[in-house]
Amino acid sequence: MILSAKDPALAQSAPPQEQDGLLKNGPPTWDANRDGVYTCEEWKSFADRLFTSADRNRDGKLDPAEFATVQKADATLADADFGYFDENQDGKITRKEFVDKPNAFILRFDRNSDCRVTGDEIRAAAAPKGPQGPAERPRDRFH
């Protein structure tokens, strides 16, 4: 999930009540170079390290108990669904299934599909949208 007023590039974001789950816990911890640009490569590197630390029995697969470690390791993964990562539905998540799965944060905010999420893209996605549907006509005292 990911904006923080401490990050000057993101300080002009939407109010907290308008932010979805991907925006509630400050900048993603996987921004390796701390430049405020979140890339697919940074995500994959982080996911690979996370997989290694969660795979306690070193069998190259995560079972549901090991996956719980993943959910606790990063706030953006707290509500992650085991089945989303377990592509073949065999009850285990391989390193490839985990690392190569598209990151929800990047899918949500990468407006130009360059596998990089910038502060501008986050602000654009978090900005309040215009009125939805026809505007209501102003009423006078007779209507």
In words, what does this structure look like?
The chain is built from 6 helices and 4 strands, in the order βαβααβααβα. Helices cover 34% and strands 6% of the residues. It is mainly α and 143 residues long.
Tally of helical runs:
6
* Helix proportion range: 25-40%
The secondary-structure element order is EHEHHEHHEH
- Which descriptor suits the 3D outline? elongated
Structural class: mainly alpha
Terminal Cα span = 46 Å
For the secondary structure, the number of strands is: 4
Computed over alpha carbons, the radius of gyration is: 19 Å
Lateral strand order in the biggest sheet = 1-4
Largest sheet: 2 strands, antiparallel
Low-confidence stretches: 1-19
Strand residues, percent: 5-15%
What topology does this entry show?
Elements: E1 38-39, H1 40-54, E2 61-62, H2 64-73, H3 82-85, E3 93-94, H4 95-99, H5 104-109, E4 116-117, H6 119-126
Index terms:
about 140 residues; mainly alpha; 6 helices; about 35% helix
